[in-house]
Design a protein that fits this description.
Blueprint (H helix, E strand, L loop, with lengths): L1 E5 L5 H4 E5 L9 E11 L1 H8 L12 E2 L3 E9 L11 E5 L8 E5 L3 E3 L6 H22 L6 E5 L4 H12 L3 E6 L4 H6 L4 E4 L5 H4 L4 E6 L5 H9 E9 L12 E4 L8 H11 L7 E6 L2 H12 L6 E5 L3
Length: 310
């Protein structure tokens, strides 16, 4: 089967290669899925660049990818919630950059009919982040008014929608070009960071601030927006100047979070969730390289998806 792998750390065009791999056996707890779409995530780019090498050991050739969607072709005897022929969403430890994946049954759920292949694949990691951050990291401490910085991105846009479903008042910031998108998702108030200082616009208004940007000046503005004693959650870097008393939390994956719980919750709201897809690219090595290079810059809002022809 065809897969796209890293042969080393480095630039996309130098280290991403196409390989032919043998199919893995399926034990009683696993499921084989013929993949029809997979997402390229910023994490993949960072791993390929070597940013994780001090704490994430990989053996080359290494197949990237955590998020995918496809059709079940084989099911282990202990797995009862999916069957051969089911359309499913997959969250794998790695390996979705390819024609098939063998993954634990607990990391797979049926794909709702409301989701296209590309949206299903694109939702996985952003939804897991959104759900676990709000439900488990913060829980009842989140408060009523929440600020989402980077609200046009995949995680930011899902946060806006998920928080509104919970009845929260949502403040949001993104670039001016994405204002209409963010407000359509339900944000109560919006500040364009490229036209105004969101820190001043929303000063001391949020019980919780979630920084879904790459960090930097957004963190300083977020501290201004957070009420004294509130929560500041960063998906990337926490602000260096924590000039206000509060709970400063860095969100990251945890073994305590259940993929099956979070993905099941996604299936329950799938017909109401919107995700912007920037580009859907053909199932080729050139597409994967292009997607990585695109994400290294400052791309417009939306996920990059690789989709296989059916």
């Amino acid at each position: 089967m065809k897969r796209f792998a890293l042969k080393d750390y480095g630039t996309a065009k130098d280290v991403l290669i196409e390989i032919q791999a043998e199919a893995r056996p399926v034990d009683e707890t696993h499921v084989r899925v013929a993949l029809l779409a997979f997402a390229i995530n910023p994490y993949d780019v960072a791993l390929r660049q070597g940013a994780m090498r001090d704490f994430r050991i990989v053996k080359f050739p290494y197949v990237l990818g955590n998020d995918g969607a496809g059709i079940v072709t084989e099911v282990g005897a202990a797995v009862t919630h999916v069957k051969v022929g089911d359309e499913v969403i997959v969250h794998a430890i790695s390996g979705t950059y390819g024609e098939e994946i063998v993954a634990p049954g607990k990391k797979i759920v049926k794909k709702p009919a409301a989701l296209s292949w590309e949206v299903a694949a694109g939702l996985v990691t952003p939804w897991l982040t959104t759900y676990n951050l709000v439900t488990h990291l913060l829980g009842d401490t989140i408060g009523q008014t929440v600020m989402v910085q980077g609200a046009s991105g995949a995680v930011g846009s899902l946060l806006v929608q998920f928080l509104k479903k919970q009845g929260k008042t949502v403040l949001a910031s993104a670039s001016k070009r994405n204002e209409s998108w963010v407000t359509r998702l339900g944000a109560d108030q919006f500040a364009a960071y490229d036209q105004a200082d969101a820190g001043k616009v929303f000063a001391n208004q949020a019980d919780t601030v979630i920084d879904a940007t790459k960090g930097g000046v957004a963190g300083e503005a977020g501290v201004q927006i957070m009420k004294t004693g509130g929560n500041f959650v960063a998906l990337n870097a926490l602000p260096k100047e924590q000039t206000k008393t509060g709970n400063y939390l860095a969100f990251g994956p945890s073994k305590e979070y259940s993929d099956f719980e979070a993905l099941t919750a996604l299936t329950e709201v799938a017909d109401e969730i919107q995700l912007k897809i920037a580009e859907v690219l053909p199932f080729t090595l050139a597409s994967v390289i292009y997607g990585h290079e695109k994400l290294e810059g400052h791309p417009s809002a939306g996920k990059i998806i690789i989709k296989k022809e059916q």
